[in-house]
What does this fold into?
Amino acid sequence: MGKLKINSGFSLKRLDLVVNGLVNTQFLGNYKSVFKGAGLEFADYRKYNAGNDDASRIDWKASKRVGQVVIKEFEEERNLEIIFLIDVSSQMLTGSTEKLKAEYAAEFVSTLSQSVLMSGDSVGFVLFSDKIIQEKWPQQGMAQYYSITDSLSNVSNYGGYGNVDTALDYVFKKGNHGALVILVSDFIYGLKSEKMLKLVSKKFELISVMIRDPRDMTLPEGSGEVILEDPYSGSTLLVNPNTIGKEYASLVNSDINSLKLMLKKHGADFLFLETNKPFVKEIVKFFKMRAAKWR
It folds into this structure.
């Protein structure tokens, strides 16, 4: 049975060593405060302690009112429950960098899962292509982490085309209300049902993570004519990247912007990642954006 290579030894708890001090473990320790569905409820304000507190939790409006720097205190009502919807279609097994999109996605999911599980929260996953391939609903404990990495590294789980709508419909019917759903896909085939997106966004907190290879975004120029092949129908097309490259890039960006607008309309967030760039820094920026959004 074939295996994908996953560098699962990396941990979000080492962000402070990797991202030039952008964050520290105090920030990571409060990661649940950036998710509205994390079961955290505002309790009170207290004075900010520069030596121990995460500066992202400062409430500047309240600080101005009371004449001193204060932060929000939260009470935890329940554990966070995360469900990863992971695209394991054939196009995720493509790539022009040292990592296939599938490998990059697997490392992203396993890294986040490890951090969440080590914090005592629950993680589950659904692997999908044009159908549901495998599922395991949220559980606590590191055994769940090894189940996730084993499933993502198993090549026999990959194939078919990526139908995001099928995955959303499935989690809508099966998932627990209020869970955090993280949808990981290259979205090459887009998102067709806005109605389903609306339903899912009301039942869960939804974050869509688009993982693209650089070749998904632009065609290679200066290489003469190339043959493009549809991996499912087998049909081919002879094109000259130097002639259609700009139009291709424009259409790709237009599709991505349309998806972002649709997600924003229904209160879902969007994170864009490329396989030629480490995802850690982008996660940090995303967490900070979320913290500011819910402050």
User: Anything to note?
Assistant: The first helix runs from residue 15 to 18. The chain has two domains: 21-76, 78-215+263-294.
